[in-house]
Amino acid sequence: MRKMKKKTSSGEKRGVYLREMAASGKIASFRLPPLPTVGELIKLYGLRAEKQLSQNFLLDLRLTDKLVRQAGNLNNAHVCEVGPGPGGLTRSILNAGATDLLVVEKDSRFIPGLKLLSEAAPGRLRIVHGDILTYRMDRGFPGIICQPWEKDPPNLHIIGNLPFSVSTPLIISWLENIANRTGPFAYGRTQLTLTFQKEVAQRLTASTKSKQRSRLSIMAQYLCTVHQCFTIPGKAFVPKPKVDVGVVHFTPLVQPLIQQPFKLVEKVVRNIFQFRRKHCHRGIGMLFPEVRRDAFTEELMCKADVEPTMRPVELTIPHIKALADVYAEMCAREPLLLGYDFREELRLKHLGKRRTPKAMAKGTAPSPE
């Protein structure tokens, strides 16, 4: 009998064609086939931005293309997009030539529209329905793309139009990953191109003595080269937020500017900037228990050779490095210092004050505790 030839679907043919293009390095010239516009998809699936999730859609493909260009050359690149939503930025990443795009989307309403894009670019778009804060990105890409930390960054990029509510905790989490070379940075010095509220973007990139100088400035800049690329006006988003949006690019440094554990550096910086308008010794003093605060603060400031009357915004990263190094030495000498939290001491103090009047009313002596 004559063997029937298996019919090949148009999708399979397109998949073979794309794989051949990727192998020949011609994928950058690939453009997505005609698709409904992002606006039409929003109407088709009845989508709307959820205020409680801080969602704002960027529908202008000229702006999404411009954002993607800040990431550099994506030809044959691996990319993780955070919170793709209706897929506007996703289209720009695919059109830029990425051969492997992993999107992580928490909101199930956007999955059908993303699947439509996946069908239009077979073999190039993978969809994860999950939360980026808990997703194990170190398992999301093949190990072959790994690069030694001392070499150039891997051909892996993280790109995202981040919801305002998650942007700060997410970048702090990734900065800790950079310090520990874990998560997406297990592959090497993975680059990030992300959106933030304009004010947050300014804090991330603020220089010494500027009004925007903050905890975020120090934490980002001691670990990365940070560059504010451009500003997207709020009116470009749907719904329109009350603020403009800044696009920021991060490249991890080969050697961090402070050679101390991330948690220790973060604790020192957080305490310094909680009194940003005071002299820096005020915040530094909060690193120590009240009973020895003055003596320890003086020792730290003296050994680090930092002027106590400097304002937090005047401190350079070398100043912070000196403070962190001396504080680490003091913690090695006095192990309980690292776990000390002045807020907890304050809470117990207030709790004791509330208990004392009750004990006296009952005619009993207050507990020594």
Overall morphology: elongated
Distance between the termini: 94 Å
Tell me the number of strands: 9
- Proportion of strand residues: 5-15%
Number of helices: 13
Q: What class do helices, strands and sheet pairing give?
A: alpha/beta
Estimated radius of gyration: 26 Å
User: What is the typical, i.e. mean, pLDDT?
Assistant: 86
> How are the strands ordered across the major sheet?
4-3-2-5-6-9-7
What is the H-and-E element order? Answer: HHEHEHEHEEHEHHEEEHHHHH
User: Main sheet?
Assistant: 7 strands, mixed
Helix content: 40-55%
Identify low-pLDDT runs.
Answer: 1-29, 363-369
Give structural notes.
The protein has 369 residues and is α/β, with parallel strands linked by helices. It has 13 helices and nine strands. It has helices at 10-24, 38-44, 61-69, 88-95, 111-120, 164-180, 198-205, 215-221, 262-273, 280-285, 293-304, 317-333, 342-361; strands at 57-58, 78-82, 100-105, 125-129, 156-160, 191-197, 224-232, 237-238, 245-252. The strands form two sheets. Strands 4-3-2-5-6-9-7 form a seven-stranded mixed beta sheet, with helices on both faces. A two-stranded antiparallel ribbon has the order 1-8. Strand 3 (100-105), helix 5 (111-120) and strand 4 (125-129) form a beta-alpha-beta unit. Helix 3 packs across helix 4. The radius of gyration is 26 Å and the shape is elongated. The N and C termini lie far apart (94 Å). The model is unreliable at 1-29 and 363-369 (pLDDT under 50).
